[in-house]
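The instructor's notes for this session suggest beginning with a concrete chain rather than abstract definitions. Hand out the sequence below and ask the class to guess, before any prediction is shown, which regions might be ordered.
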Amino acid sequence: MRKRMEKLILQNRLSPGDILIMSGALRDLHLTYPKEFVTDIRSPCNEIFHNNPYVTPISNGDGKVVDMQYPIIHHSGYMGYHFSDGYRLFLQEVIGKPIRKTSMRPDIFLDQNELNWVNPVRTECGCDGKYWIINAGIKNDYTLKGYPYYQEVVNLLRNKITFVQVGASAHDHPKLDGALDLRGKTNIRQLFRISYFAEGALCAVSFQMVIMQALKKPCVVVAGGREGMRWQAVNDHVFLHTNGLLKCCLEDGCWKSKVSDCVDLVDGIPKCMSLLSPERVVSSILSYYDGGRLSFV
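After discussion, reveal the predicted structure:
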């Protein structure tokens, strides 16, 4: 007699980046236990999971609701866990058996219509199709993630790299001079497509960073000392952190949220960010070309 598949409704009310990370645990569950589970998603941005083969509609009341969490974040600094472990380890406790980790990357699935999409970057700037995304904004509840020198980076790379500025209209995204302005002009699926066709991205620890992880795209992450490098970094991104350089983030990030909570400011700027000069960020972007992964030709 065929075993009945267990139905799970994975619920997540966190930010889009956290929700996208959860897609890795969803994949790991199904690859470890094929045909044993049916899974659906409840989140503020379910469009993240469009085309995802591991999502099947489940009616409310017809499955076990799992409020997805990642409590191991509280131990990541000294135990070496990565964010990609968080939801997976939580979910295996829920189902009562181990889930095999298959990748550090989350999943984004683009269908053929999306891949054939007319990219507004090419139509609006008339460039040759090569560009970098830049997300220079912050959410008001996480002002400590702000990097004050994005404009200087754009200035230093004028006539060398085309930047396309993105960002949700609900957040604080000051306009950058010299960048194509797409702030507030993309929904989540459009942002996925623009990211897919980009050379790379420059951003803080953010949804944009996670998108680039999923798409296997270059990314320079201006992280500072707020979050632990071991928790967030992936191998093919340049993760500019200051863990271990300051007393406030010796073995892990400080995990504070706002600049007003920072204990080490230099002229009103968190010292961990002031240590990351625009020249260092520029060098990190150009290192993808120096190494041969990207080419200006």
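Then share the key points. The chain has two domains: 6-95, 112-290. The radius of gyration is 20 Å.
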